[in-house]
């Protein structure tokens, strides 16, 4: 029996601009650990990932749309980065509503790199300590949180990491939150 058998994880992304490893690695590794992972995008078109925010990466088929996903069906939410992805997600009211819904009931919300921009927009950072890509420091502080520079930061149900190099610790922290 795998550690995450019976756990359902939702990953949200836009259809263009998500950092390849920040969506592929957590999705694959959580599945390998037994979780059922659903990828939701803004629409049903292919997700075009990028490497380093500019070079085309793999394409992925979303399983559903952000609009039809419901926090009640899942045990955790993962928000990958990629500057373009994160900038567009933070203006997507349905994505913001999902982040709020998970946070409001204390379900883990994991965001990496620029992904924490959605946490800023969702208003769930007050009094929290998180990490992110360094350029988000001011946004994080203005949202009422403390920013720290470390590979993974867990504060309550929020799990955050800085960049693709932090993915091993990020995925381990998601697993730990789901098995606690």
TrEMBL record:
Highest rank taxon of the organism: Bacteria
Keywords: Glycosidase, Hydrolase, Protease
Any GO molecular function: peptidase activity
Cross-referenced Pfam families: DJ-1_PfpI
Record-linked CDD domains: GATase1_PfpI_like
Enzyme class: hydrolase
Catalytic activity, EC: 3.2.-.-
GO biological process: proteolysis
Domain DJ-1/PfpI: 7-174
Signal sequence interval, chain numbering: none
Similarity-based family: Belongs to the peptidase C56 family.
Protein's UniProt name: Protease I
